[in-house]
Automatic annotation (TrEMBL):
Name used for this protein in its record: TIGR02678 family protein
Ranges where the record places region Disordered: 403-427
Basic and acidic residues: compositionally biased ranges: 414-427
Compositionally biased residues, Basic residues: 403-413
Organism annotation: Micromonospora wenchangensis
Length: 427
């Protein structure tokens, strides 16, 4: 198979689209011009290799990548903007409110926040008793506390902020003030063409989502046509060679790790010579680095453009604990690790280095769960039904952790310090 490389500037734009799914001419004019120059090559690349649609909205100056995945990652999604940190994932209620805000703005492209709150509250009141929409009560009255009303206003402000970050809408005043001040004057404006370009799935009404089981919703929404959205057609599409190819390649491009055995067939697509070569070619075209074992793929972006996850960098104690745990897992000898085992390991480390993790001295089980959570995000541990037990993935064998510190350390395997340097083991 001939390797298909992208121009370096075009590969940079493609990696940015994989993470953000959009490029705006106003916010990122350089990348926007690069995409316009290579629009045909980039559009063909995403369509033929990954089955994703790239839409260039010339009037609005927006490039949007519509990523379709039947296996949507649970740790991905819009994050709420906060003063510090990455911010937590937006809860379902905020995402529902964002869709309702888009609906109201489609009808009235310029609306005050007060009118928007009233309109959304009326829609929710009509459907809340059926369970289809959340209760949304914005006024403290009998049966509604002031805290509940303020929480509802905070949720819709978060929804508006998500749309604002997406470049879909404009706001003329401070939204945070509107959470506590019911008389705050805020006007929201939107462009109908931009709103229409935001959604790539078929209409939920046409798909009759309310009549389908919840576990069928994602597969139905990612269908390309109405016949393709039927349950039998969805199952056939996912089990076909093309469906398996797209699922595997999307994981390689979009996730930090890929499991070749996570395939309905006895031989996974990535385990075949054709699948392995095609996946490596796509990774190389995008400028990604794939470390491959027979039973595991680990994908990294040296530029840091395709992902906002920075493991193993960082000096915080939780990240150091994750690296200490990672140094232990290749020698663990079991398919699962428990919070108690991690806590015992951290106790051994603290006996060698009493000053390490001093803030967690009396709360090592909390540190154990935080460290395991870091490795779950990196794809090196998997969650199980038990919140204190995690499955160890083969990816731990691709890492070697080396601790460096100012004074000589006592011999032993469990050592960690602020500067830890991961090394990949040759596949």
């Amino acid at each position: 198979m001939t390797q298909r490389l992208l121009d370096p500037d075009l590969a940079d734009a493609a990696r940015h689209l994989i993470l953000a799914c959009r490029i705006s001419s106003a916010d990122d004019p350089v990348r926007y011009r690069v995409v316009l120059r290579g629009r045909r090559e980039l559009t063909d690349f995403f369509r033929t290799e990954l089955g994703w649609t790239l839409h260039i909205h010339d009037v609005g100056g927006m490039v949007r990548l519509h990523k379709r995945r039947d296996d949507v990652p649970g740790d991905r999604g819009p994050r709420l903007q906060r003063r510090s940190g990455r911010g937590e994932l937006a809860p379902a209620e905020v995402l529902v409110l964002a869709a309702l805000v888009c609906e109201q703005l489609w009808r009235r492209p310029r609306i005050s926040l007060r009118e928007l709150l009233q309109s959304v509250a009326q829609v929710c009141a009509a459907e809340a008793t059926t369970g289809r929409l959340p209760a949304f009560r914005i006024v403290a009255t009998d049966g509604v506390s002031k805290r509940e009303a303020q929480a509802a206003r905070a949720n819709i402000v978060d929804a508006i902020k998500l749309l604002q970050v997406d470049g879909e809408i404009g706001v003329d005043a401070d939204l945070d003030r509107a959470v506590t001040d019911e008389n705050a004057e805020v006007f929201i404006t939107a462009d109908r063409d931009s709103l229409a370009n935001k959604f790539a799935s078929l209409s939920p009404t046409l798909l009759s989502l309310s009549a389908r089981a919840p576990d069928q919703h994602v597969a139905t929404l990612t269908a390309i046509s109405l016949p393709d959205a039927e349950p039998d057609a969805v199952a056939q599409r996912q089990a076909s060679v093309e469906g398996r190819r797209l699922t595997a390649l999307r994981r390689v491009v979009d996730d930090p790790v890929a499991d070749p055995d996570n395939d309905p067939n006895p031989v996974g697509y990535l385990a075949t010579s054709t699948g392995r070569e095609r996946a490596l070619n796509i990774a190389a075209a995008l400028g990604l680095v794939a470390s491959v074992r027979r039973d595991w793929w680990e994908i990294t972006d040296p530029t840091g453009t395709a992902s906002d996850f920075d493991f193993p960098q960082g000096r915080k104690t939780e990240r150091q604990g994750a690296l200490a745990l990672l140094s232990h897992l290749p020698h663990h000898g079991a398919s699962e690790v428990t919070a108690g085992e991690i806590t015992t390991m951290f106790e051994e480390i603290r006996r060698d280095m009493p000053r390490w993790a001093a803030g967690y001295a009396e709360r090592l089980p909390v540190l154990a769960r935080a460290a395991a959570g870091e490795l779950v995000t990196a794809g090196l541990l998997r969650v199980t039904g038990d919140e204190d037990r995690w499955q160890v993935t083969p990816g731990v064998h691709l890492w070697r952790v080396r601790a460096r510190h100012g004074q000589p350390a006592r011999p032993g395997r469990h050592r960690t310090e602020a500067d830890s340097d991961p090394r990949e083991e040759p596949a």
